[in-house]
Specification:
By secondary structure, this protein is α+β, with helices and mostly antiparallel strands. Helix content is 48%, strand content 19%. The strands form 3 sheets. Strands 6, 7, 8, 9 and 10 form a 5-stranded antiparallel β-sheet that branches. A 4-stranded antiparallel β-sheet has the order 1-2-4-3. A two-stranded parallel sheet has the order 5-11. Helix 1 packs across helix 2, helix 7 crosses helix 8 and helix 8 crosses helix 11. The chain is elongated and about 100 Å long.
């Protein structure tokens, strides 16, 4: 085998490989010798078929198989000899001229092909002990607990049917049909929808116009969708709703104490309070980790600046861009609505794509250098957790992941990332900074970029 380097530019490599016809023929003959004891042909005893006869019958197909194997072996040899780590599978370009191909298949000519490689950069890891991070922390306050308990109680408040006009605080079950300029619109209709008047659950002004409505009464409600409404095709538009009250209910007293807790399946009000406190703490800790993780990734990005494989960056960009443009199309928004241009947006998302690829390579390198691994048990637990998210379909979800290696890898990857993050946070200097709830849950520009 003769290998000639044609290109060494950045992370791209290209080689011309020549596999001599004699070498391919020798491998084909060896393969035919293996087949001699296995092939059954009329007129020949088992194991007595002449190799020359096999070559006449199967020579071309065997040589094609040998060529495929030889190409793969040549590619692997190039990678091994040069100590490359590949970003993508090699791109092989075989001869396209039919006459030239036939000469190779017939063993009359050497096989010459090119192989293009895109390699991963060599990453020099930074000093993780030099990283200093502020971690926002927030203790659970009694006020938060009481507010949450009140919301739980409100959501479980009993209602009783009432006669007469609906008042603020009453729950009205309504049917409605909405229209804009006389035309019904998607998502503008509903049947038997419970609505607590004064809850501000619907468009501003909608609930106020139902004060005083009676059972079986129909009213026309005129409202205007907010300018920042999430469905862009409705934002800022005036709409008319024909609303019929199916039933009116008045609120009963809120459940309290142990009786309230037992209605929710808990032993006592104290147990309910502790569960609420634990859940709030879990939310705060999760948000705190998200913040410190983003700051850690920023620090890693600052420590490791290197060229990323173009194909990986392009794949990441394509995924981001398709998601962004699909969402904008669904919302009927343009780049002008976002205060930018398509060219500027492409440049921004290209930077984000390269950052993601770079950080992914850094995290992978850290994990490899420090023998950080994801166990089968951890993946199994992730599959079980995923299956629980689909009640009644647990077995189908389990089978899907069991039979789909790529889907299983999608569960393994975030587990690996979190383990690497834990490893780095142990090495970094992490300073816990008490913050307010508003500060903890505020989304700053750095968070958006991350």
């Amino acid at each position: 085998m003769q290998v000639t380097e044609l290109l060494a530019e950045g992370l791209k490599r290209e080689y011309r490989v020549v596999l001599p016809a004699a070498e391919l023929d020798a491998k084909a003959n060896a393969r035919l010798n293996e087949l001699k004891d296995k092939v059954r042909l009329n007129g020949f005893r088992p194991g007595k078929v002449p190799v020359a006869h096999l070559k006449r019958m199967y020579g071309k197909s065997v040589l094609a198989e040998v060529i495929d194997q030889a190409v793969n072996e040549a590619n692997n040899q190039i990678v091994e000899d040069n100590g490359f780590k590949l970003a993508l599978q090699p791109k092989v370009e075989l001869p396209q001229d039919e006459a030239a191909v036939n000469e190779v298949i017939e063993g009359k000519a050497d096989l010459t092909f090119t192989v293009g490689l895109e390699v991963l950069p060599k990453i020099e890891l930074g000093d993780f002990k030099s990283i200093a991070l502020d971690k926002p922390v927030l203790a659970v306050s009694d006020e938060e607990i009481e507010d949450t308990l009140t919301r739980i109680a409100e959501s479980n408040r009993p209602y009783a049917a009432k006669q007469g006009e609906a008042e603020k605080g009453d729950r009205v079950h309504i049917n409605f049909v909405g229209s804009i300029d006389g035309e019904k619109f998607e998502g503008g209709s509903g049947e038997d929808i419970p609505l607590v008047l004064g809850s501000n659950s619907f468009i501003p002004g909608f609930e106020d116009q139902l004060i005083g409505i009676k059972e079986d009464e129909t009213r026309t409600v005129e409202v205007t969708f907010p300018a920042e409404y999430q469905a862009a095709h409705l934002a800022g538009k005036a709409a008319s709703f024909e609303v019929t009250a199916r039933m009116i209910e008045s609120p009963a007293e809120l459940p309290q104490g142990d009786e309230f807790a037992k209605a929710l399946g808990l032993e006592s009000y104290d147990a309910l309070r502790e569960q609420v406190k634990s859940r709030i703490a879990q939310e705060h800790n999760g948000q705190s980790r998200n913040k410190v993780k983003r700051r850690l990734l920023d620090a890693l990005d600052g420590l490791h600046q290197f060229e990323v494989p173009p194909s990986l960056a392009q794949q990441e960009f394509d995924g981001i861009w398709n998601s962004v443009t699909s969402e904008m199309e669904a919302q009927k928004r343009t780049f002008a609505d976002e205060g930018t241009t398509e060219e500027e947006a492409r440049a921004d998302y290209d930077k984000i794509a390269k950052r993601r690829v770079r950080l992914g390579l850094v995290l992978a390198e850290i994990g490899e250098k420090n023998n950080i691994q994801v166990t089968d048990d951890e993946v199994t637990r992730a599959v079980v957790e995923r299956a629980r998210q689909f009640p009644g379909q647990e077995q189908q979800v389990w089978e899907f992941y069991r039979q789909n290696a790529q889907a299983l890898a999608s569960l393994r990857a975030p587990i690996f990332e979190e383990k690497v993050v834990d490893f780095l946070l142990e090495l970094a200097k992490v300073n816990e900074v008490p913050v307010t709830r508003e500060e903890l849950y505020a989304e700053d520009e750095a968070d958006k970029a991350a």
